[in-house]
Amino acid sequence: MIGAAPLLLQTGAAGLAWWRIRPSPLASNRALDELHQAYRLIALQAAVHELRVARAFAALRAARVEAVLAKGWAMARLYPDPGLRPYGDIDLYVRHEQHAAALEALEDPQGEGIDLHRGFAELDDRRPDELVARSRVETLQGVEVRVFGPEDHIRLVALHMLRHGVLRPLWLCDVALALESRPLDFDWHAFASGSRRRSAWVRSAFGLAHALLGARLDGVPMAEGAARLPRWLVPAVLRQWSLFVPPHGSRAPMAASLGHPAAFLRGLLLRWPNPVEATVGVGGPFNGLPRLPFQIGDCLLRTAQFTRRLVAER
Fold this sequence. Notes:
mainly alpha
């Protein structure tokens, strides 16, 4: 545990680690005091984030914009203690036609740490009306906050994790917790609606949560398929966790390194897609085939997108 402390701090899992060792003799080890301090800081930040979420929804509701919250507070509220799940951005999803009004109502979303999504991203294989109909309204700081229904939220959380290559163990903890805390009336038919390929990806996410975290698959219709993971998947995720790689949004843009060969090469190496990220990037299946062709394909796709953006900016 002592040797893993720096990695736990970097990946946001320090609060969970402290919660686990708190009742044990390890809690008195001064070398692990940073985990305790991180846990306390996460709990303090949670109170601030709740105020930001409530303020954002109050402003949007005044402008008659109906937003749906995902990840962040929507995920953290499922944990048994506010010091366990750190988050920064407030992910809000609005319909395409309400995006401009939402931007105006929020005034400075970026300054408030709000990630305002035009449309429903990973859930765009479902009708917006269905997503809103399945959503739930919670009360936070006296303000009504709309969150995705459990059938949609667990799917979004799992797909987001896979799209980013399962970079952080905390994201897999989210999947495991959302799976185990699903309500008794969880609608598996609604959960599986939309893209079959995406449903198969989420099934693999469930399998990962079961294999690495012991998440229970009782009552999961796809449990048998989830337990049959390709041999490369678990080792690829464990290897990724041993290397702290910052998520996409926190990396220096590649355009800034143009004209600096060493920095450009470092940027390319940092962005070489891991097997999970590449599979989702090219829309492939999680099967037993080698991943190198998927990684090369994903790299070529991203290079083409990067080149098009550069040309458009000039």
